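pasting input
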Amino acid sequence: MSSYRCVFLMGLEQALEYRVSFFLSMLSAVFPIIIQTVMWNYLYSHSDAAAVFGYEHGQILLYTLLATIVSQLVGAGFEGEVNGDIKMGGLNKYLIRPMDYKWYQFFRFLGQKVPRFMVAAPVMTVIMAAAFWQGLPISAGRVLSFLCSLMLGMVLNFSIFYCIGLLGFWLTEVDKLFGTVGIVLTVASGGVFPLDIFGGLVETLVNVLPFGYTTQFPVNIINGRFGWERIGIGFGFQLAWILVFACLGCYMWRRGVRRYAAVGG
Amino acid sequence: MGIIEVEHLKKEFSYYKKATGIKGSLHNLFRRETLTKEAVRDISFSVEKGEMIGFLGPNGAGKTTTLKMLSGILYPTGGRAEVDGFVPWERKNEFKRRISIVMGQKNQLWWDLPASDSFYLNKCIFGVDDGTYRDVVTELSELLDVRDLMSVQVRRLSLGERMKMEILAALIHQPDILFLDEPTIGLDILSQKKIREFLKLYNQQKKTTVIITSHYMADIEALCQRAVIINQGQLVYDGRLGDINRVLGERRLLSVKTSSEVNPAQWEGFGTLRETSAAGAVLEVPQEKVKAILGAILAGLPVEDFTVTEIPIEESIARFYQKEVVAP
């Protein structure tokens, strides 16, 4: 068996080891959905929000639901470990083995996502079926594009957070940064509400910056908001940003590992 | 030429100075003073294939830093090293397949999963074939007495059990060279003994070259013929473990038991008085004078019994640690 397949399976095994933690993390996705549904219901019943935001009431609820799920699927969470490995000398064990640390983290990240996918897939299917029944234009092509963009979104988010984790080579104490960066990036990726409701400059920024391509882009494919041309351009941006962050990650690793002090023991 | 060749190896670390308390922290926010610590300064030695050497020194002497450079974890600041024909810090995969390192204070196993999962991962990473893998795990788990613990999560193992698993994991790919950094630290006497016996047997059978650091002299005495001692980053001794006393001047400990109490002043003429009590005394004397001094004591004092012993190796090494002496 190839070593990365083995890492992938061990990541999966590890995610299943702590069952309670796993179910709680799934449950924690429910609360933001409830809060947002209440908030949007209030806004839409008290103002002409549809005209302001450019989203119908049903559309915005669908967006919130899907974005929360996608956000959970692409979410990183390993950056603290990368930083810890650098800070506490845990990197030693990877440096002495004939394997690449980035691929190791990547396949473990994928392995740990599998249980989440297994829970998210039926939930998404139910939501999509309900939306289809309400008149949403879903086609096989869209579902396929959505799945592709979701995969690329995961790779992109991994690349971004891998670079953030590698900052540990230069900054000793970045743990606290992760919380802040995590929240900012979740909002910036459209994981809370669609950023195109702001229009103008914000919308342009979202279209150019990498973050929206982790969450908002896949959601906008499946909810029918993007036409095929936009989808094509979006894939281009996704791939370009993956390339940028992958190169940045390789560069940071090469520079960082020379500085690495392998502290302790 | 040895399997490990180290020449003028150096490693410097830079760090920031920080005064105690908030004031120091605030000061550091704006201006930091960078200091340099020379962890390893100009070390040279060579190790032959199949040799097992004790790498000794007090805490902070640079032992671990040296091992990290030899295993390719750290880049040196200067000097050169060749391990099994490779420059370690170039980190070639072929080099990594030939070495292994176990650190007593670091965990290399997956904490949440059974050790057997980590073994299997190592098998995949190092490309060990199924048959060899099965044989190695069966043999080593029996020798280390951990066969029944293979499917227990690592976090549930005792420190001693975990250490045995760490060693087993490090040997899955049957390395030519094994670096052991305090493999028995914090273990009870029985576990220490088990690991020692295992390492001795393994070294004899497989002819694996081993460099071991330990603060337990029992480890070193049981395993190593040769010791390399460093202090403050510098080599202070490289030679046979048994020769350490010779370097320090051959001296003996003379323990004498008397039938009645002897005035301490009476002992002093015979040698360096180490301890004295109503029942006798312990004297440190030059080896060549043992006979004469013993004769004089027997003639002049009410001796009941006596023993002559070498100075404990631990004590001799401690004198190297205190930098009282530098090897010839």
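fyi The two ends of chain A are 33 Å apart (CA to CA).
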